[in-house]
Amino acid sequence: MNFCNLTGKTILITGASSGIGRQTAILVSQVGAKVIIAGRDEARLKETLSMMTGSEHQLFIGDLTEESSIFELAKTVPEIDGLVHGAGIVGPTPTKFIRQTDIDHLLRINFETPVLLTSRLLLQKKLRNKGSVVFISTIATRSPYFGGALYTCAKAGLEAYSRSLALELVKRGIRSNCLQPGLVNTPLISQPASEGQIEMVEESLQRYLQKYPMGVGEAIDVANVILFLLSDESGWVSGISIPMGSVMQ
Length: 249
Ligand SMILES: NC(=O)c1ccc[n+]([C@@H]2O[C@H](COP(=O)([O-])OP(=O)(O)OC[C@H]3O[C@@H](n4cnc5c(N)ncnc54)[C@H](OP(=O)(O)O)[C@@H]3O)[C@@H](O)[C@H]2O)c1
Description:
The chain has 249 residues and is an alpha/beta fold. It has one domain (10-236): NAD(P)-binding Rossmann-like Domain (Rossmann fold). 43% of the residues lie in helices and 17% in strands. The protein contains eight helices and seven strands, in the order E-H-E-H-E-H-E-H-E-H-E-H-H-H-E. The protein has helices spanning 19-30, 42-51, 67-76, 100-123, 149-169, 187-190, 198-211, 219-230; strands at 10-14, 34-39, 58-61, 80-85, 127-136, 175-181, 241-244. Strands 3-2-1-4-5-6-7 form a seven-stranded parallel sheet, sandwiched between helices. Helix 1 (19-30) runs parallel beside helix 2 and helix 3 (67-76) runs parallel beside helix 4. The protein is globular, with a radius of gyration of 17 Å. The site of NADP nicotinamide-adenine-dinucleotide phosphate (NAP) has 27 residues, from helix 1 and helix 6.
């Protein structure tokens, strides 16, 4: 059986220097894809490359909050069959403290960058017919958490954008889908914790586990579903958002 084989396909993955993006790059390279991995941190991006299978992969180093980097990436990539928007950040923003700079910061990489990058790739005719676009949203667009207003707004915007994209590209056989993972064990959630915060983190973890009894996921749990969405086996699936790590529908 050759289920979800990506031999002959070229995939662009942003956020590939860490967490879910890195794990996805490793996985899709193992099933035959040629991969362009993008991130800001050159050393960690090279580390990802060293963990991948195959030798034809490319690196792109750049800050994707800058439009010039988005343009440069869209110009330099070859034609692609799959696009995974893995770059993203979190940041607690309780509603009464929200300022313009917080909106700019949280919405830029989480919403504007994937929208602008997709648009630029389409304009440059870099996305092949029958391609697949995957966005990473969050389970929190279905069920809020304290301080998550801006993060969830950005991700909910992505979900709506993905549905429109799916409709506009359906005639070319290009599909667009979102994942909505619960908490995943990556540097995104582990690094903000300092020693003084451990008790609070443990407390919030227990609260999380009460709400989501499937527990905390690993990057490979998300990468496996991304692989399915990139493959021809999901060829009749578009315009949806898939909750992960939750029993809620
Ligand atoms: N972890 C979770 O619990 C969870 C749950 C639901 C959804 N998600 C979403 O899943 C995606 C991946 O998260 P993760 O947990 O894998 O996070 P991560 O380990 O922190 O990785 C984030 C990636 O985004 C890249 N990135 C951030 N800002 C960037 C910028 N300005 N320009 C270019 N690249 C940038 C980072 O690149 P550098 O390292 O090179 O800076 C890194 O490769 C995010 O969109 C996140 O919102 C995560």
